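Students often ask why we bother encoding 3D structure as a string. The short answer is that it lets us treat folding as translation between two languages. Here is a chain of 170 residues written in the first language.
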Amino acid sequence: DPTRLEAAEDAAVAFVQSQSSGSEIGLVAFSGLAAVIQPPTSDQQALVDAIRSLTTGRRTAIGSGILASIDAIAEVDPNVARAILPGRPGTPPDPVVKGAYVPDIVVLLTDGANNAGTPPLDAAQQAVDRGVRVYTIGFGTAAGAELDAVCRQQFIGREPAGAGGFGFGG
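And here it is in the second language, the structure alphabet:
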């Protein structure tokens, strides 16, 4: 106690609630895929509700989560170029001066090793090229633990074909 999902949710909620009321925060969920679940907003209750709605998934596409986060930031900050994705050509941005950053950040919460999607180091390089800092927080135990009872049922005999659903990486 708590489960990894509960610990990650509690940490994310505490982070949201510790920010000033005007701070805009978005939520990207990733598992086999990544998607913006809550576009950047200053509505803390909407963020808490979105966080509490997450479930675990079968895969962990950390790099895809970072790239989706870059895109979410690009929607609200014209100084940040969209990520370059396979099948979506783009022009690499001029790298920022070493040590210079945009005010936007990515806080990455995960309980697993990357096993799907864009390699995390490739995605992290795109963040660096845009001056976006990425802070990573890992959740888990050295010995592992039983899956959360609420989430366990989706895994027993239900291996999805293809890329899996959305939730915290796992």
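Translate back mentally: The helical segments are 4-18, 44-52, 62-76, 120-130, 149-152. Keep this in mind for the problem set.
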